[in-house]
Amino acid sequence: EGVDVGIYGNYWVNPDSPPDHSVKQTQCIYPDCTYDFLQGEALYKAAKISVANNPFPEARGFASNRFVQVCSAGGALLIHQYIRDWEKLTGYIPGVHYIEYKTDAELKQWIRYFLDPAHETERQKIVEAAYRFTHYQYSFDAQVKKLFIDHLPLAKTKLRRAAAVLSLPRSPPHIGKERQEAGEQKKHNRPRPPPR
Asked: Taking a C-beta distance cutoff of 8 angstroms, is the pair 65, 72 a contact?
């Protein structure tokens, strides 16, 4: 009670729709700003909390771009459903950059906790840490740097190794041995060049 809640995006059905799913088309309560990034950023900046779910919590590293969008906006605390190996893959730490939940009961507890004015300083501290981390690690410049420093040298090494493997003769070992022996005989039977 007393909390202004907005639900944005696709697939949210108006609560006045019949419960038997006889409504063929989803009626959005709020505008769909899924790909309107400026509107999304403005909403995240103005919000206290942004809740995001994960339809595949056991899938390794599965998340939408919403995670980075919320953290980069610098207004809303992100409360996100568990993502397997998220910290290992991205560096985002639960409790430092966002709040993680696994059950609906945990989600309710976190929402109540961070909407309590007594915890506003803690909420702001997490939002600031997420904002700084995201702009440091996931800005365009940071991604280009990672591409050139981390990924391209690794790709070049892998390509060189693959090229070396592809250039090796593909004959069975016994044929290679026969060729080598024949080559040795040719070396011995070659006439020597005349002395100068």
From this structure: no
